[in-house]
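Quick start: what a row looks like.
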Amino acid sequence: MRIIGLDYGAKTVGVAISDPLGITAQGAETIVRKRENQLRHTLQRIEELIVEYDAEKIVVGLPKNMNNTEGERAEACREFADKLERRTGLPCVLWDERLTTVAAENVLKESGVRRENRKDVIDTVAAVFILQGYLDYAANMNMQQ
C-alpha cells in the first residue's frame, strides 16, 4: 500500500511517495501554481499521482505553531485536505509538520545544495520528512499491538 505525503504551501505542494511496503518515503516532485487559491491543476496532478502509484492514503502536513496552536496556514491545510478527501475518496491524515522545513533546509545545506537551488526542492524534501514521520509512527503503533 503506497501513501502520498504532501507539504501544502501558499504556492507549492511538495510531494513524497512511500515504497509499496510503507517503510520509506521518497521525494516525487513539487507542484507549483501561480496563485494560492488556484487548486484545479494541483488537485488534478495529485489525482494523477494517486493513479500512477496506486496510492491508498494521503498524509497532509499540518503546520502547527511551536506552542501547539494553529494559525491561518493550518486552517488552509485542513481545507485542502477536506477538498482532497472529497475529490479522491481517499482518507487524508493531517500530520504535525513542525520544523520539517527547517530540517529539510539543514539537510540540503549539509548536502552542499546551493542556496539558489534549495528553493526548487525544499518542499519535496519537507514532504519526505512529513511522510517518513507518519510511516515511522504507523510502524511503531503496529509493533505495539
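That is the whole record. The chain has one domain: 2-144. Strands lie at 2-8, 12-18, 25-32, 55-62, 92-96.
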